[in-house]
Amino acid sequence: MQVTKTDLEGVLILEPKVFGDARGWFMETWSARKMEAAGLNFNFLQDNQSYSAQKGTLRGLHYQTAPFAQTKLVRCTRGKLLDVAIDIREGSETFAKWVAVELTAENKKQLLIPRGFAHGFLTLTDDVEIQYKADNFYAPNCDGNIRWDDPEIKIDWPFAPTILADKDAKAPTLRERLERGELKFD
Q1: Is pLDDT above 90 for 35?
Q2: Which of 13, 25, 98, 123 could pair with 20 as two cysteines, CB 3.0-4.6 Å apart?
Q3: If you average pLDDT over residues 148-174, what whole number do you get?
Q4: Which pLDDT score is estimated for 147?
Protein backbone atom coordinates (compact mmCIF):
# COMPACT_ATOMS: atom_id res chain seq x y z
CA MET A 1 0.00 0.00 0.00
CA GLN A 2 1.40 3.36 -1.00
CA VAL A 3 0.59 6.21 1.41
CA THR A 4 0.80 9.78 0.07
CA LYS A 5 0.49 12.88 2.25
CA THR A 6 -1.63 15.81 1.11
CA ASP A 7 -1.35 19.50 2.00
CA LEU A 8 -3.61 18.88 5.01
CA GLU A 9 -1.98 17.01 7.88
CA GLY A 10 -3.69 13.66 8.44
CA VAL A 11 -5.50 13.60 5.10
CA LEU A 12 -3.83 10.82 3.14
CA ILE A 13 -4.19 9.17 -0.24
CA LEU A 14 -3.89 5.39 0.02
CA GLU A 15 -3.16 3.37 -3.10
CA PRO A 16 -3.48 -0.37 -2.62
CA LYS A 17 -1.27 -2.82 -4.46
CA VAL A 18 -3.36 -4.43 -7.21
CA PHE A 19 -2.60 -7.97 -8.34
CA GLY A 20 -3.96 -8.82 -11.77
CA ASP A 21 -4.05 -11.91 -13.93
CA ALA A 22 -6.31 -13.54 -16.55
CA ARG A 23 -9.16 -13.74 -14.04
CA GLY A 24 -9.15 -10.02 -13.22
CA TRP A 25 -7.58 -8.41 -10.16
CA PHE A 26 -7.34 -8.53 -6.37
CA MET A 27 -6.39 -5.90 -3.77
CA GLU A 28 -6.46 -5.41 -0.02
CA THR A 29 -8.42 -2.23 0.67
CA TRP A 30 -7.54 -2.29 4.37
CA SER A 31 -5.07 -4.26 6.46
CA ALA A 32 -4.75 -3.23 10.10
CA ARG A 33 -1.32 -4.86 10.26
CA LYS A 34 0.04 -2.95 7.25
CA MET A 35 -1.56 0.30 8.32
CA GLU A 36 -0.17 0.02 11.86
CA ALA A 37 3.28 -0.50 10.33
CA ALA A 38 2.70 2.80 8.47
CA GLY A 39 1.67 4.52 11.72
CA LEU A 40 -2.06 4.46 10.99
CA ASN A 41 -4.10 3.00 13.82
CA PHE A 42 -7.84 2.98 13.30
CA ASN A 43 -10.56 0.69 14.53
CA PHE A 44 -13.21 0.99 11.85
CA LEU A 45 -16.67 0.20 13.22
CA GLN A 46 -19.06 0.89 10.35
CA ASP A 47 -19.02 0.48 6.56
CA ASN A 48 -21.22 2.71 4.39
CA GLN A 49 -22.07 2.73 0.71
CA SER A 50 -24.02 5.17 -1.43
CA TYR A 51 -25.11 5.25 -5.04
CA SER A 52 -25.68 8.35 -7.15
CA ALA A 53 -27.47 7.83 -10.45
CA GLN A 54 -26.61 11.08 -12.18
CA LYS A 55 -23.48 13.06 -12.95
CA GLY A 56 -23.49 16.32 -11.01
CA THR A 57 -24.81 14.88 -7.75
CA LEU A 58 -23.23 16.56 -4.74
CA ARG A 59 -23.26 14.99 -1.29
CA GLY A 60 -21.84 17.05 1.54
CA LEU A 61 -20.15 18.80 3.11
CA HIS A 62 -20.80 16.51 6.09
CA TYR A 63 -19.15 15.87 9.45
CA GLN A 64 -19.93 14.50 12.90
CA THR A 65 -19.05 16.19 16.19
CA ALA A 66 -17.95 14.69 19.52
CA PRO A 67 -18.53 12.23 20.97
CA PHE A 68 -19.21 10.63 17.57
CA ALA A 69 -16.65 12.41 15.37
CA GLN A 70 -15.44 10.10 12.60
CA THR A 71 -12.34 9.26 10.64
CA LYS A 72 -13.36 7.98 7.19
CA LEU A 73 -11.60 5.90 4.57
CA VAL A 74 -13.34 6.63 1.26
CA ARG A 75 -13.14 4.85 -2.09
CA CYS A 76 -15.07 4.86 -5.35
CA THR A 77 -16.12 1.43 -6.59
CA ARG A 78 -18.06 2.53 -9.67
CA GLY A 79 -17.71 5.61 -11.84
CA LYS A 80 -15.75 8.75 -10.99
CA LEU A 81 -16.06 11.45 -8.33
CA LEU A 82 -14.21 14.41 -6.90
CA ASP A 83 -13.76 13.80 -3.17
CA VAL A 84 -13.11 16.78 -0.90
CA ALA A 85 -11.89 17.06 2.70
CA ILE A 86 -12.04 20.41 4.54
CA ASP A 87 -10.25 21.17 7.81
CA ILE A 88 -12.92 22.54 10.18
CA ARG A 89 -10.92 22.27 13.41
CA GLU A 90 -11.07 25.64 15.12
CA GLY A 91 -7.55 26.94 15.76
CA SER A 92 -5.92 24.63 13.20
CA GLU A 93 -3.20 26.16 11.00
CA THR A 94 -5.11 24.86 7.99
CA PHE A 95 -8.62 25.84 9.17
CA ALA A 96 -11.00 26.21 6.17
CA LYS A 97 -8.40 24.76 3.78
CA TRP A 98 -9.39 21.87 1.57
CA VAL A 99 -7.93 19.14 -0.58
CA ALA A 100 -9.64 17.37 -3.48
CA VAL A 101 -8.78 13.99 -4.99
CA GLU A 102 -10.35 12.31 -7.99
CA LEU A 103 -11.41 8.83 -6.95
CA THR A 104 -12.41 6.34 -9.63
CA ALA A 105 -13.17 2.68 -9.88
CA GLU A 106 -10.16 2.44 -12.18
CA ASN A 107 -7.50 4.29 -10.14
CA LYS A 108 -8.57 2.54 -6.89
CA LYS A 109 -7.27 5.43 -4.77
CA GLN A 110 -8.69 5.88 -1.29
CA LEU A 111 -8.85 9.05 0.78
CA LEU A 112 -8.31 8.92 4.54
CA ILE A 113 -10.14 11.81 6.21
CA PRO A 114 -9.47 12.34 9.93
CA ARG A 115 -11.84 13.55 12.62
CA GLY A 116 -12.37 17.30 12.50
CA PHE A 117 -12.72 17.42 8.73
CA ALA A 118 -15.86 17.89 6.67
CA HIS A 119 -16.32 15.59 3.69
CA GLY A 120 -18.18 15.87 0.43
CA PHE A 121 -18.07 14.70 -3.14
CA LEU A 122 -19.34 15.57 -6.61
CA THR A 123 -20.07 12.80 -9.09
CA LEU A 124 -18.21 13.27 -12.39
CA THR A 125 -20.06 10.47 -14.21
CA ASP A 126 -23.43 8.78 -14.04
CA ASP A 127 -23.77 5.63 -11.91
CA VAL A 128 -21.33 6.33 -9.09
CA GLU A 129 -20.86 4.15 -6.01
CA ILE A 130 -18.82 5.24 -3.04
CA GLN A 131 -17.90 3.08 -0.07
CA TYR A 132 -16.31 4.21 3.14
CA LYS A 133 -15.29 2.94 6.52
CA ALA A 134 -15.89 5.01 9.66
CA ASP A 135 -14.20 4.63 13.03
CA ASN A 136 -17.32 5.71 14.90
CA PHE A 137 -21.01 5.03 14.55
CA TYR A 138 -23.42 7.41 12.83
CA ALA A 139 -25.21 9.59 15.37
CA PRO A 140 -27.96 11.88 14.03
CA ASN A 141 -27.62 14.27 16.99
CA CYS A 142 -23.92 14.81 16.12
CA ASP A 143 -24.47 15.14 12.36
CA GLY A 144 -23.55 18.48 10.77
CA ASN A 145 -23.08 20.00 7.36
CA ILE A 146 -21.64 23.10 5.70
CA ARG A 147 -22.62 24.80 2.45
CA TRP A 148 -20.96 23.25 -0.57
CA ASP A 149 -20.31 26.74 -2.00
CA ASP A 150 -19.18 28.42 1.22
CA PRO A 151 -17.46 31.69 0.19
CA GLU A 152 -14.80 31.34 2.89
CA ILE A 153 -13.76 27.84 1.86
CA LYS A 154 -13.91 28.47 -1.92
CA ILE A 155 -13.79 24.88 -3.16
CA ASP A 156 -12.86 24.79 -6.83
CA TRP A 157 -15.56 22.39 -8.04
CA PRO A 158 -15.18 21.46 -11.75
CA PHE A 159 -18.83 22.47 -12.30
CA ALA A 160 -21.87 23.39 -10.23
CA PRO A 161 -23.92 20.48 -8.92
CA THR A 162 -27.26 19.72 -10.53
CA ILE A 163 -28.58 17.46 -7.77
CA LEU A 164 -28.20 17.89 -4.02
CA ALA A 165 -30.26 17.23 -0.95
CA ASP A 166 -32.37 20.08 0.39
CA LYS A 167 -30.49 19.95 3.70
CA ASP A 168 -27.19 20.45 1.87
CA ALA A 169 -28.54 23.27 -0.31
CA LYS A 170 -29.70 25.09 2.84
CA ALA A 171 -26.67 24.26 5.03
CA PRO A 172 -25.08 27.05 7.07
CA THR A 173 -21.62 28.39 6.29
CA LEU A 174 -18.53 27.33 8.21
CA ARG A 175 -18.43 30.75 9.90
CA GLU A 176 -22.06 30.37 11.06
CA ARG A 177 -21.30 26.93 12.53
CA LEU A 178 -18.21 28.32 14.25
CA GLU A 179 -20.08 31.29 15.72
CA ARG A 180 -22.71 28.92 17.15
CA GLY A 181 -20.00 26.77 18.77
CA GLU A 182 -21.03 23.73 16.72
CA LEU A 183 -17.57 22.46 15.77
CA LYS A 184 -16.45 20.28 18.68
CA PHE A 185 -14.45 17.14 17.84
CA ASP A 186 -12.73 16.15 21.10
Answers
A1: no
A2: 25
A3: 97
A4: 97
51 part of the active site:
no
- Evaluate whether 59 touches 168 at the Cβ level (below 8 Å): yes
- The model carries a pTM of 0.94
Query: Is 119 considered catalytic here?
Result: no
Measured at the alpha carbon of residue 186, what is the angle toward residues 93 and 120, in degrees to the nearest 5?
A: 65
Candidates 51, 63, 119, 132; catalytic one? 132
pLDDT 10s digits, 77-102: 999 999 999 999 999 999 999 999 99
- Which among 164, 74, 135, 140 has a CA at the least distance from the CA of 110? 74
Q: Where are the domains of the chain?
A: 42-179
Q: What is the CATH number of domain 42-179?
A: 2.60.120.10
